[in-house]
Design goal:
This protein is mainly α and 144 residues long. The chain has one domain: Arc Repressor Mutant, subunit A. The protein is 60% helix and 6% strand. Strands 1-2 form a two-stranded antiparallel sheet. A hairpin with an 8-residue loop joins strand 1 and strand 2. Helix 1 packs across helix 3 and helix 2 packs across helix 3. It starts with a helix and ends with a helix.
Amino acid sequence: MNESELHTLHLLRDHPWSTTSQVAGLTNLPLRSGQRYLSNLLSTGLAQVARVPQVRGRLYAPSAASIALLAGGKRKVKTYARAFRIDSLHLAETLLRAHSLLWARDFLTALVVPGAKELQWAAGGSFVTDMAINWRRRIRHMWP
């Protein structure tokens, strides 16, 4: 596993049930690289995938094997999973709220400034205004 895949795995730990575009945006990777890393994690059993009605795309989360890997051993898995709220109960609860979490995470991903290592608020007022207009359109579409 390379450093970018490990970074992707940490992101899935912190933001379970993320889409490919969210993972790519929050890790500052091109979309194709994010897809490749998620595919590699899936094929090695270090990630799990789910589909949810009314949500476009696949949602990725850490698997039991990846939690054991991140925890540093099987003896620490339960404590580690509880500390990061990625035990099976919390993952199931998060998946039930995936639709609403997806919107919030999409908004936060859009605020990531390209080239930055962490989330930053955009400086331009027009960017924030455009985001607000797009959100109003999405909400009107859902609740006419």
